[in-house]
Amino acid sequence: FVTDNVSAREASVAEKTALETVADAAMPYLPSGLARPQFYRATGDGTLRLAFQQLTATEANAALVTLADITSVLRADGERWDTITYSLLNRTMQFLPVLLDARAELISTSVNGEPVRADEESRDGKVVKLVPLIQTKPGQRALEVRLVCRFRADKAAGAKFDDPELPGLSIERTTWTVWT
Fold first, then answer.
1. Rounded to whole angstroms, how far apart are CA atoms 34 and 163?
2. Cα(39)–Cα(127) distance, rounded to whole angstroms?
3. CA distance 109 to 106
4. CA atoms of 95 and 98, how far apart (whole Å)
5. Minimal CA–CA distance to 148: which of 131, 134, 123?
6. Between these two residues, 174 and 11, which has the higher pLDDT value?
7. Please, what is the average pLDDT of the chain?
8. Is there a smaller number of Cβ atoms within 10 Å at the N or the C end of the chain?
9. Cα–Cα distance between 87 and 141 in angstroms, integer?
10. What one-character DSSP code corresponds to residue 54?
């Protein structure tokens, strides 16, 4: 005989006596359209008891940053300009939070080549830039989020080469190019 679980729950064998599991080739007839069949043969008077367990949904990442590509240009006048490009798969986030160095001045932001206006909010005494995002569906291409920032000559001297922090997100890979 055949059992077929077409429910959203997981089925497992709780008790099996006088039954053996067989391949589908041992069945004299198979109905079409079986979803998850299991095949058995009785070897005497026996029982088959199935247990069903409700599967729990797990929460996926709100967004996944696959690449952070940073290019820094050190100018002769002492200024430093950074272009930061994130490849981002966005599932549920409305804004990308970016914590820049306190000495950095955000010059421009764009998402997929379209200019956007970054808002800001204060978190734990630090200013976090909020870049508006578009949601992507599974299989869709990643968003390209680009930030251009400037460190003025008087502030660039003390600035470290630290990549911006994305609170609540991790970055899979970072590349950094420095031009002098």
1. 53
2. 62
3. 8
4. 9
5. 131
6. 174
7. 86
8. C
9. 9
10. P
